[in-house]
Amino acid sequence: LNRRLAGMGTTIFAEMSALATATGSINLGQGFPDTDGPRSIAEAAADAVLGGRGNQYPPGPGIPELRQAVADHQQHFYGLEYDPDTEVLVTAGATEAIAAALLALLEPGDEVIAFEPFYDSYAACIAMAGATRVPLTLRQPDFRPDLDELRALVTPRTRLILLNTPHNPTGTVLHPDELRTIAQLAVEHDLLVITDEVYEHLVFATGHHPIAALPGMRERTVSISSAGKTFSFTGWKVGWVTATAPLVAAVRTAKQYLTYVSAGPFQYAVAQALRLPDSYFDTLRADLLRKRDLLCEGLTDAGFQVFRPEGTYFITTDITPLGEKDGLAFCRALPERCGVVAIPNSVFYDDIEAGRPLVRFTFCKQDDVLNEAVARLRRL
Ligand code: PMP
Ligand code: GLN
Questions:
Q1: Model pLDDT for residues 335-347, shown as the tens digit of each residue
Q2: Does ligand 2 have an atom closer than 6 angstroms to the CB of 30?
Q3: What domains does the chain contain, in order, with CATH numbers?
Q4: To test ligand 1's pocket by mutation, which of 17, 115, 167, 226 has the most ligand atoms within 8 angstroms of CB?
Q5: pTM reported for the whole predicted model
Q6: Pairing mode, strands 343-344 and 358-362
């Protein structure tokens, strides 16, 4: 393993999901639902396979039906206009979009400002691009960015700001005033913004606001999302990028040599999913809101300090009130102690101390699974 990837051996998600399987534990670690998305969408994927649509290499930028559906979705929900022919790119999940965007847009030595805790692929992809990550730490209890601190982090080497809203793992959703300040900073210093919005439809209070919609931002923003979370098919790995034609062309260049294209039949199904009625998105949100509160209450009863998230399907907790100090040790022992798996937030920090007592639980599980997990955690 080269120096750039040193210390990044196995992702925490693989480690903890393997532990869940090995111990037969309830897995509230890796974020994937235990109920698949709409049957009509699964049937669309099956129909595409059986009907011979997408079984051979689809077009590099993605099938036209999906690019059109992505453009229409951006228009419908946010009033953002993108040309499906030149300003939309389909990727193998948001993961590939993030990798391709960073590899395409960064020069070695560039600095990337990103919120810490970071989703784990950010650090790895910034490193693979030979760039340097510059963390802006989100601190408890509210995990909001200190925008004066952000301003102070900008240097002549800063190339881009990597945003994630709603934010994994804290659940922070950037508010319009925060986005405006970040946008002004980007314009002032001529920075690019890559924004990871995979949880765009999992927002419980204030609504999701894409930074690309703000003045001066369309031309400097690469917006990324994917079907995994919104449609509860995380295994399909269909993601997308929307940006101006030159930015999309740059990202496409990198994408061509990473995967060339993404799985064909699922693209037909996701094109259909993006056209589900608004009631689909409302129901998804309402169900998850209820589950959020169920698990927040359960974890509070079990003695955790709970930070109620505004978005995503993750709850960050502090284990200090349980007499625990170290989230990584706690998560490694938890399956043996009570048959539950969670994710230690410290792995998403450079500043390990800021994340040490924090542990993340997902609530995208059936109610009885959440209730059973809580019953087990209460016996700790
Ligand atoms: N970004 C964030 C913040 C995530 O939590 C995830 C996990 N779904 C991804 C990107 C990756 O998304 P995908 O599964 O579409 O590659
Ligand atoms: N995004 C999901 C999470 O944060 C899973 C990602 C993964 O397994 N790489 O849990």
A1: 999 999 999 999 9
A2: yes
A3: 3-30+280-378 (3.90.1150.10), 39-273 (3.40.640.10)
A4: 226
A5: 0.97
A6: antiparallel
